[in-house]
Design brief:
The structure is a homodimer of 238-residue chains.
Chain A lengths: L14 H15 L11 H8 L3 H13 L3 E4 L5 E4 L4 H13 L5 H22 L2 H16 L6 H17 L5 H20 L4 H16 L3 H21 L4
Antiparallel strand pairs in A: 1-2
Helix pairs in contact in A: 1-3, 2-3, 4-8, 5-8, 5-10, 6-7, 6-9, 7-8, 9-10
Chain A binds a DNA duplex (30 and 30 nucleotides) through helix 3.
Chain lengths: 238, 238
DNA sequence: TAGGATCCAAAGGTCCAGCCATTGCAGAGG
DNA sequence: CCTCTGCAATGGCTGGACCTTTGGATCCTA
């Protein structure tokens, strides 16, 4: 049987593309790990046998991709980061300005990920960890939504982020955090609403988690996110 | 109550950052729309009163962000794109690469996303679209897994990708692709197995979809992914 | 000796001027 | 009318130069 050949769109191979691929491969292999420092621009250029300008372009690309951060000065240089959440978020924001995604799309994705995560939380989280979540809820409730809506909002998302971390699956946060960032930006522009409703939902959710009742927890989380969406659409972005 | 002030990390403002922000603002305002062409590098440099190198760095960043594509030659230049899904996918792949994960983590995430997607497929897909999926299954079955395992594998993922696209939520494919990419990196190394089992599962899944039976479709997809995992763990990465 | 002021080297930020490589298209030639 | 060819526009890349930032080493002083 003939091999299914697959033609690639003709994109001229640039030196820059080669460089960033080398870095990506090294990251995948573990040759480069978070915290490590790439060579200085001048040294890197020499190693790669390209000009410093070309190296700089490659570094800029890696920076935007969220793989490195660049610091100036004596101890400066390009350092491998340990999370590119910001970059993913920025991509999603860009996607929304290109009118590719709607709020409902975001919410649906959150429901998909977070309900799956919460099931694992019920299975795996220790009681201490659940108490930690209780504490986060209390912190949220202690912030006056009128006086400091942004602070309250940030507190909400700290809860969600932590909840998803407790699932034990490291992939879930990678996906969920950018979605939260997106939701956060929207909420920040809409302004405060119905703080009590959210706190009450949190209490019901925590009750279900403590009772290790996955079904109830999923139901509560889902209805919470759907409520959120209702509020958003009824108060569109200015 | 005191406002929780939030200080931003001190990041020196570079010329490059200014340029990409100008472009982002123009995109947001609608001054720049998909398909439009930015000035040539030389002209752009003059307009911005910066060197051509700086412009090039900015263009590279916008390119990685998925906002423009760059074409060489006579009618070349930087064109605003209408979709940055490719960039988001790449970001997520990078994010997962930076994260310590296991195969089970990937499978769990796939179950979360793909079962949610398939529910929407049952609701939204037309019969013609389902027929299209049937066709993809037939294509998979026609490839000899012994002779061309990579081709068969690629065919499997085409099915999954298309299935998820048919959910109608553009976020789902964006999340699913990186997961497939990560799964693919592993499968390609493991080699062929049990082609018949997979095709049979596909048939059962399609049957459920045609019958618009969401519950059965979800169950089939889930058990398929779990089966996949079983096979993987029993044949660990070399 | 502790504390502060100063100097300096390393590293990124920017610019310049030039040359090469690619590519579409207009015009020449059949 | 079609084909070939050369040109000009545009991105790709180089090498060198200079500025700015920044942290640490050094030196001075109380």
């Amino acid at each position: 049987m003939s091999k299914t050949v697959q033609f690639q769109p003709t994109k001229p191979r640039r030196a820059v593309d080669d460089i960033i691929e080398q870095v990506r491969v090294m990251l995948d292999e573990g040759t480069l790990t978070p915290g490590m420092k790439l060579p200085s621009e001048r040294e890197f250029a020499e190693q790669l046998a390209v000009s410093r300008n070309t190296v700089r372009e490659a570094l800029r690309m890696l920076e935007v991709a969220g793989l490195i951060t660049i610091k100036r000065g004596a101890t400066g240089g390009a350092y491998v980061v340990d999370s590119n959440t910001q970059a993913i978020t920025q991509s999603l924001v860009d996607g929304m300005t290109l009118t590719k995604y709607t709020l409902l799309d975001i919410i649906e994705a959150r429901i998909a990920i977070e309900t799956s995560a919460v099931i694992k939380v019920v299975e795996n989280a220790t009681d201490d960890e659940l108490d930690e979540l209780d504490e986060l809820v209390a912190q949220s409730a202690a912030i006056d939504p009128q006086a400091d809506w942004e602070g309250r909002l940030a507190s909400y998302f700290r809860f969600h982020d932590r909840l998803i971390e407790l699932s034990g699956n490291p992939i879930f946060p990678v996906i969920a955090r950018p979605l939260h960032e997106m939701a956060n930006r929207v909420s920040a522009r809409i302004g405060s609403f119905a703080g009590d409703v959210i706190i009450q939902s949190r209490h019901r959710l925590m009750h279900a988690l403590h009772a290790r009742d996955a079904e109830a927890a999923v139901a509560e989380l889902r209805s919470y996110l759907e409520l959120l969406y209702e509020r958003w659409v009824s108060r569109p972005i200015d």
